Amino acid sequence: MSDDGFSELAARSAKVKNENLQLLLGLRAFERKLLDLVEGLGCGGNSETIVFDEILDDEDEPIGHTMCYLTFTGRELKICWKEAPRPSEFDYWNYCTLEEAGTDMQRRVSDHKVLNSLVADLLVNLDREYMKTASVVQSLSQFVTVEKAAMDADLDGLFQGNKMLSDSWLKARGCVLTDPELSITLSCSHIETVLKACLKSLGETGYQKDAIEKLGSKLLDILKKSSVIDEATSQMMRGVGTIFLGVGTIRNAQSVSHGKDDEYTPPTSDLAQTVNHLAGVASVFVMKQTDLVLKGR
Hints:
Strand content: 5-15%
Radius of gyration: 34 Å
Number of domains: 2
């Protein structure tokens, strides 16, 4: 054979090897995508089963076929296959890696219908896992709801008599579970509303555009200078000032009040509930201290 023939053989061989490699890399990319979406959930799925390669006897009569499907274990893709009927009494599936399965089976499970059926099965299994956990969470939430209701009732009573403050508190509380981001924003707004109302009642001006930490600092400075505030209460108010600053910082980092970057992490309902109750307790505290100052005057 001439050198040209060998050159052509080498070129064709390289071409086929490259396509086979691209096939394997494509399946690996599909595997990585699945891992990105469901990693850590321990949830897998199987594709539809496909039948191919009739098995013939010595007289070329069909006596069986090969079956295979693509499976995702939650950690990796594997190909499962078996002959049907088996030539022996042991009817079992052979599980193998993508590389072990070989190019022919890689081609067959790469059909878009096969891949789509695997994704569909994963969706069903994820829904099943969700329902298992959701039922338990619902059971636990009954105990949490009782505790939460008791805390909320105490704060509701403290805001009675002032419709504006009561409304702002209820709006923030109402979306703790359904929209934690919005609840944090509204809780911060509630504190700002209370601080401005206190400053106004004390005859202060020039605070309307101040941030929450400045509003808190101005009000606390006034309260500290009042003769109705003792040293222990003064120390407590320094803690309240830290709460105001902390709530404002959380609002800026984990609420709907600012834009979000790639590293943004949505707040949990637990965090929103904590911010909401801190906002309520702290704002009631400064309201009561403001009333003491006004009575002292």
